[in-house]
Amino acid sequence: MKFIERIWDYKIQPREHISIRERAIRWLAGFLIVMFLLTILSRAANAMTIPRVETDNAAKKTIEHTVEQEGKIEADGEQAVTAVSGLKINAVHAANGMAVEEGTPLLELDVNDIGEKLKELETELTKYELSISDAKYNQSLQDSERSTNISRAQEDYNSAAAENNAKIDEAKRQMDEAYNNWQNAGDIIDPEAENAQDEASLKSVYEEKQALYNDALTARDQALKEASRAIEDAKKSSSKDSTADSTALDKEAVADKIAKYKELKEKNGIITAAGKGTVTFIDASVVTGGITPETSLMLISDTGNGLKFKATLDEDQQKYVAVGDKVTIKTADNEKITDVTVESMAPNAENAENQDVVVSLGNTDKVQIYDTATLKAVVSSKAYSTCIPKAALRKGANGESDYVFVLTEKKSVLGTQLVVEKLTVTVQEQNDSFAALLDGEVTVEQKLIVDSDKEIQAGDRVRLAESDG
Question: What is the C-alpha separation between 305 and 358, in angstroms, rounded?
Fold first, then answer.
């Protein structure tokens, strides 16, 4: 700098007194000033035009997948509170969200209404019993008539068989006698007798008797066939009368109702909780002065069996959560319930592509029913030899393969320069931070470009951001 100051302060002598040496110094000074300014401009242009990049290297890693999903705390089971329908409600003591213990009164039914309904049911039960008795008596008469018809049909069969067999025996005797007469015609015919028969006449008599015998056989077969059918018809039961069975079912249903009414009457119409829990639902009809519905009166969460966490996972999240996995539940107060297990996964009722996941929490005081909490599941892959930062991975356009940019050194007339090179890669597995590539596509020594201050392409000249200054 002192040299430059000296040149700056140098006084130019009048033209006629300037020597060659002085002129050379003058031109040299000007040249150095110009070069200095060009160097500054060159560095400024270089900084403005050549992209600055940041790099990282591949390494051996496992790919971790983390699933976090918000859900609700529910009771691990619910109990339905029911009562006989059609009874008047005198008072309702339960309310949504109310904690109850075993024996806690939930509502009161009208005792007088119970008594009146009980009398009606007992009268109805008596009618059913009489109806069953009548049906059984009528069935007994039908069975007796059927037995009589079978017996008579069998007697008719036996009589027809005996009668027709006797006719066959007589027809056979006459046929045999006519046959013998015909065969012995030469011995028995007297030509001089007044009514003598010739051999042809005897043969004709035999054929007539034979025809009568065959007719007797046919008549017997037909008679026995008809008698057999009569037996079969008699054995057939008349159309089944299910009145007794149907009435018995009705009687059983009424008897069950009577038992429930008697139990309610003994408890003065008070319905109580069967166990510890929280009221989660009350039917709209369950109000003072209302009538008990045919459906459940209310639902009580069974907190005595513990609590459970329930959330809905989308298709991507489902890949990394399975029944039996150990997960962590984080409460709204940032407390953690660890080492709990996924109990079940089932299609969501509204969207079958999603899955409802249930985690059993057991008995814990870290959460309460209806609290909001978050499920966290972490799944690690196998160890991959070539894992790169996700920032280095670039998606191929129009169906092309994924790729990365790496730095390569290239010599030129200006010296060694850093140039961008494009490498096609194959992703085996990835998460939000890293991607695992096929072995051999990228080496751990290669510098992967993870960021740049300008858009870059393959073949571009770049410089390292850390080399500035």
Answer: 15
* Closest to 373 (Cα-Cα) out of 32, 128, 69: 69
Greatest pairwise CA separation for the chain in angstroms = 208
DSSP state of 269: T
Could you tell me the two tokens for 78? 């619910």
Q: Tell the residue number behind the tokens 């319930």, with chain if given.
A: 337
DSSP 340: E
- Interior/surface letters 360-386, b for 16+ CB within 10 angstroms, e for the rest: ebeeeeebebebebbbebebebeebeb
Q: What is the mean pLDDT of the chain?
A: 83
Chain-centroid distance, C-alpha 163: 75
Tokens found for residue 214: 């065959």
Torsion of the alpha carbons at 228, 232, 233 and 239, rounded to the nearest 10: 180
DSSP string, 125-185: HHHHHHHHHHHHHHHHHHHHHHHHHHHHHHHHHHHHHHHHHHHHHHHHHHHHHHHHHHHTH
Q: Decide the pairing of beta strands 336-347 and 298-301.
A: unpaired
What sections of 184-198 are H helices per DSSP?
185-188
**Residue 410: both structure tokens together:** 């290239």
HSE-CB for 383 with a 13 A CA cutoff: 3
Q: How far is residue 71's CA from residue 312's CA, in Å, rounded to a whole number?
A: 7
pLDDT tens-digit map of 167-220: 999 989 999 999 999 988 765 555 555 545 678 899 999 999 999 999 989 989
Tokens coding 128: 């059913």
Q: Per residue in 297-318, pLDDT tens? A: 888 877 666 788 889 999 888 8
- Kindly give the interhelix angle for 111-183 and 243-266, rounded to the nearest 10 degrees: 160
Report the C-alpha gap between 75 and 369 in whole angstroms: 6
Instruction: State how far Cα 319 lies from the chain centre.
Output: 16
Residue 466, C-beta contacts closer than 8 angstroms, at least 6 positions apart = 54
Which pair of tokens denotes residue 264?
A: 């309610």
Backbone angles phi, psi at 102, to 5 degrees: -60, 125
Residue 291 CA to residue 289 CA, distance in Å, equals 7
Q: How far apart are CA 284 and CA 264, in angstroms?
A: 22
> How long, in residues, is the chain?
469
Lowest mean pLDDT among 70-79, 215-224, 442-451: 70-79
**Position 132, amino acid:** I
In contact, 390 and 434? CB cutoff 8 Å: yes
